[in-house]
Amino acid sequence: MSSDEELDEYPDGTVRLRNPNIELMDQDILYHLALGSESHDLISMFGDIKFVCMGGTPKRMEQFAYYIMEQIGHKLPAGTTLLDISQYSYRYCMYKVGPVLSISHGMGIPSVGILLHEVIKLMYHARVRDPIFFRIGTCGGIGLEGGTVVISEDAVDGMLQPFLELPVLGKLIRRPAKLDKKLCRELRALAQPDDPYETVTGRTMCTYDFYEGQGRLDGAFCDFNENDKMEYLNKIHKSGVVNIEMESLSFAALTHHAGVKSAVICVTLMDRLKGDQVLAPKEVLDEWQQRPCTLVSRYIKRYLSMKGRLSLDGHCGSMCVKSPRRFKLVQQESENYD
Hints:
single chain, five-stranded mixed β-barrel, two-stranded antiparallel sheet
């Protein structure tokens, strides 16, 4: 089933869950976000969300929140600042800037998978319509110089398989890792001729490990040599892989399974055909990491301009608590939950 066909299942645009158990629960606690379906008024807090932007670290996504606030002209009430809505979870950060959520997803498939389960449920409880999810991150390029922006056309694992394998109740299930092709093309079209860097599309390899899984020679363990590494990297390059990272497979598979449009936009920190370690100075890396944010902001600004929604005034992601007792319970559960 294609992404477009899956999206057509929900004509009203609301996010639906593939889990009938949620409706039978007294309260759905989103443990790792420190939110609950009955403790918080999720419709009031998040019902106007259109874009969910995710990246690895809390600091980077806090910076993105302030950046997108400036880009879309979002004004905060006097005397207020952006609030980390998930501060009581101590795991992820979450900032709301008008119709944009900026959330950290941690490192690797397990971390982004946990977050996506709860963010998709958050969209459902908040009755969000037709959200678009972006992963903004860094990667190693394959045949691409550092600083190149890569928009993923699709995601594969370390065996070049285009699906996420997940053991469930002793059985291995496979979920296709598909990204929205039209969204990919629209993002590519927003690259500008005077950008001082290249923006490309291609296949992204997602691995479960940073060292051996990505063919690095500098981990604690290594049972292959330089020739073995180069043979492998050239092989995947010939198959269309242009970059390697650690989240796209889960991100693509879970958003596709939920019928949510999504895209992955990363910047390369080095060309893995030339080495394993990041050698660029910090100020250069900081500028490179801004490049995917710039592309995503162009998309959001264009969308909001078409809808006549630029220069927004609104709350800064403040808490809307329905039940103080349940709110305290959610806080305790989130702090204690491992």
